Amino acid sequence: MKISKNELTEFITPYYCDKDIMHNMWHIELVRKKIDDILEKSSYTINYEYLMLAMCFHGFIYSDEERIREWLLEHNYNTTDIDMIVKIAWESQRTEIPETIEGKILHDAHILEGGKTYTVVKTLITGSVRGQTLKETLDFMQKNVLNKGKCYLPETQLMCDEMNKYTNQFYTDIISEIK
Fold it and tell me: Given pLDDT bands bounded at 50, 70 and 90, which one contains residue 91?
């Protein structure tokens, strides 16, 4: 990689330091671990450097794409490389099927980052951090989380199905208990 781990960490940390506890630098580490897990179970030919950079940028690509591009230029990446890194970062955020294999890996790793129970934990904690009541958080879960997680790689689809099944069952159980 043209950029040292320290330089990259120094650049991205300010973008994650003010995020909630489910979207901070720990989130980046969880996604990285899931990426490596997916890659261990597969035999894709990928550009790992692009994938790692896109992973690091995915949490602020929507707000600071221009600064990311400038920073990559400052670190001697050409516009073709930068366009691909940015594309992969955006692909993790979209509901459409990613076009690149790196985008599919990042997208799926982002969906599955903490395992099958993580979506429930992340939704509850994020709702709490936002000051939502449990009812508001469960309403959010029903509208925006249940059956929304989709993975595109054969290696991740079963894990995604298990996660969705667990999340749906959790939601059904808690709703039936608190009504």
Answer: very high
Taking only the tens place, the pLDDT of each residue in 25-48 is: 888 999 999 999 999 999 999 999
If you ran DSSP here, which 8-state letter would residue 153 be given? S
User: pLDDT digits over 47-71, tens only?
Assistant: 999 999 999 999 999 999 999 999 9
Rounded Cα distance, 55 and 38, in Å: 14
Q: Which two tokens stand for residue 144?
A: 């925006």
3-state secondary structure of 148: coil
d(CA 171, CA 146): 8
Enumerate residues 6+ apart whose C-beta is below 8 A from 107.
91, 92, 94, 98, 151, 152
Q: What is the 8-class DSSP label of residue 177?
A: H
